[in-house]
Each structure stands twice: as structure tokens, then as C-alpha cells.
Write a structure and sequence with these properties.
globular, 327 residues
């Protein structure tokens, strides 16, 4: 117990310290960029004129390289997961505070507030799932890839976990950059975007809470040596097999709508890539379910009667079939 507590504390401290190089560099830049006599004035000029490229460089050095090195020292790639909800918050604050930013203040405040709520929701779900521990284990998909790539994992992991996630995160958060470079007045599309974002946050929160309660109940049943419940098909999960993923997609498409309404519709590609990635993750999760013998048959029936993502009512034929089987 003492060893676990010590590791938890050390990992928590490590997580707090890890992003400080980028944060300190940016704060130093803010304090010195306007000084033409500063020794690094040439660097500050570049940082001022290339806000997006600066985030790319800081992300690459501080998260890709540093987190990757820490992961190999610890033999676990756990730290990238709690930073998934943290990075968008840091990025939106960065874009809003950069010296060359120009934007509608109300749009910026609302987006920053919603991003903070989204981050709190996702962080809460992550730590709740991990029993409020830091670095107890890495994502099961990373563990599977570790076994798949064997001795090549040390370098493959840099590209599959870190660099790939950088491209993904930088792409999906591009609307934050657009929002803080355009001073357009408020429009009806802002209302649409806000509605989508908030609906996504609420849906994902309730779906994750129902999943957590289901997992907790099954853990209790297993500890009591009682039969566990094979599938979750109550609440939101009776209308969608992945309502949490649907909520997450609503969030990112809503953020993309902000940029689309400002004349930069092409950045919606980030939301599209996110949906494609979630489609792949959905396949992995469902394949994993079907490989578990105690729930495979029940899950196949669940697949037949329940929508994959978009919440929808069961068809009358599915309901009739289910009723016949129970009679």
C-alpha cells in the first residue's frame, strides 16, 4: 500500500512538472518579445509571426520527445492519457493570449469556458476509471501494440503514440487558432456551435457515468463470486452502443462549426479525422467484446438491435424478436 501511494505521488508530481518547460518558455516570450535589444530578439520575432508553428515545435519537444523518454524510463506510456484533455485547454489559452491574437472577446470567453468544462469532464472520467491513481497502468491498446511490435516498440511508439497524436490534436484544435485570428461579429452559427458542444459534453458525461456504474457493479459481483452482467443496455446505452463516443464527436464538430462560420470550413477536417479515429476505436472495442466468451452472444444481439453511435430507438422488429425470446 505504501509503495502504491509513493508511486502515485511521484507520478502526480511528474505530471505537473512535465509541461513546465513549454509554459516557462512561453511566459518568458510574453515578457520579452517587445524588447528589440534582447539577446534572443530574432527568436521572439519568429515566435510572434508564427504562433501555430510555435505550438507545433513546443508540442514536439515537450510532449513527443520528453514524454516518450519518460515513458521508456518507466516502461509505461500512461502519461499521454491524462494530458489528452489538458492539451486543448493549454492550446486555447495560448491562442487567446498570443500577442498577435485578434478576436471577438465573447466568442473567445465562451469557447475557453466550454473547453475547460470539456476537459474537467474527460479528466474526471479518466481518474474515476483509474481509481484516482496516476500512472497505475497504460492504455490497453498501447499494451497490445507493445506485444505486437516487440523489440521495435521503443522507436515505433514514438510515431504511433506521440507524433500521431500530435498531428491529430493539432488538427482537431485548429478551430481554436481560427477563433482567435478573426474579429467577426456574433452569428446564429455561434449558437448552433454552442448547442452542439454543450449537448456533446452532457451526453458524454452521462454515458461515461452509466458505464462507470456498470463496471463498478460488475466488479462487486465478481468479488462476491456472483454472475456478472454481460452487457450495458440501460439508460443512454439502450439507444446507442457508444453514446460516449457520439457525445465526443458532437463536441469536436461543434468546435469546428465556430471556424466554419468564420470562413474557414476546411478546418472541419479535424473533426472528420476524429470521427474516423473513433470509428476505428469502435471496431477495436467491439472486437474485444466479441472475444470475451461470457458476453459474446449477448453482445451480438445487442449489435443487432442498437445503433452504433447516433442514439436511436430500437426497430419494432428488434423489439418483437427480443420479446419472443423472453417468452
Amino acid at each position: 500500500m505504501g509503495l502504491t501511494t509513493n508511486n502515485n505521488l511521484k507520478n502526480a508530481i511528474l505530471s505537473i512538472i512535465a509541461p513546465l518547460p513549454s509554459i516557462f518558455f512561453y511566459l518568458y516570450f510574453l515578457n520579452n518579445y517587445s524588447n528589440p535589444n534582447h539577446t534572443l530578439s530574432f527568436l521572439w520575432t519568429w515566435c510572434y509571426n508564427h504562433p501555430f508553428l510555435l505550438t507545433f515545435v513546443l508540442f514536439f519537444l515537450n510532449i513527443n520527445v520528453l514524454f516518450w523518454a519518460i515513458a521508456h524510463l518507466q516502461s509505461s506510456h500512461w502519461m499521454i492519457d491524462p494530458y489528452w484533455p489538458a492539451v486543448p485547454v493549454m492550446l486555447v489559452y495560448y491562442y487567446a493570449t498570443h500577442p498577435c491574437a485578434s478576436y471577438n472577446p465573447w466568442r473567445s470567453k465562451i469557447v475557453i469556458t466550454m473547453t475547460s468544462l470539456w476537459s474537467l469532464r474527460l479528466s474526471h472520467n479518466y481518474f474515476r476509471r483509474e481509481n484516482w491513481q496516476w500512472g497505475a497502468k497504460e492504455d490497453w491498446r498501447f499494451t497490445d501494440m507493445r506485444h505486437q511490435y516487440g523489440k521495435n516498440w521503443w522507436w515505433v511508439s514514438f510515431f504511433t503514440i506521440y507524433f500521431a497524436q500530435q498531428i491529430f490534436l493539432m488538427g482537431v484544435t485548429l478551430p481554436y487558432y481560427i477563433i482567435h485570428t478573426v474579429e467577426a461579429p456574433w452569428s446564429i452559427w455561434d449558437v448552433v456551435a454552442i448547442s452542439m458542444c454543450m449537448t456533446g459534453i452532457i451526453l458524454a458525461y452521462y454515458a461515461d457515468t452509466e458505464l462507470h456504474e456498470f463496471s463498478t457493479k460488475n466488479a462487486e459481483l465478481k468479488a462476491s463470486e456472483k454472475p456478472i452482467i454481460p452487457i450495458l443496455d440501460k439508460g443512454l446505452w439502450q439507444y446507442s452502443r457508444h453514446p460516449n463516443y457520439f457525445g465526443e464527436q458532437l463536441w469536436w464538430w461543434g468546435i469546428g462549426i465556430f471556424a466554419w462560420s468564420l470562413g474557414y470550413g476546411w478546418v472541419l477536417i479535424g473533426a472528420l479525422v476524429n470521427s474516423l479515429c473513433l470509428a476505428y476505436v469502435t471496431t477495436l472495442v467491439e472486437d474485444r467484446m466479441l472475444k470475451q466468451s461470457f458476453r459474446a452472444d449477448a453482445y451480438r444481439e445487442y449489435q443487432k438491435r442498437t445503433s452504433v453511435w447516433i442514439p436511436w430507438f430500437k426497430s419494432s422488429s428488434s423489439l418483437a424478436e427480443t420479446k419472443d425470446k423472453t417468452n
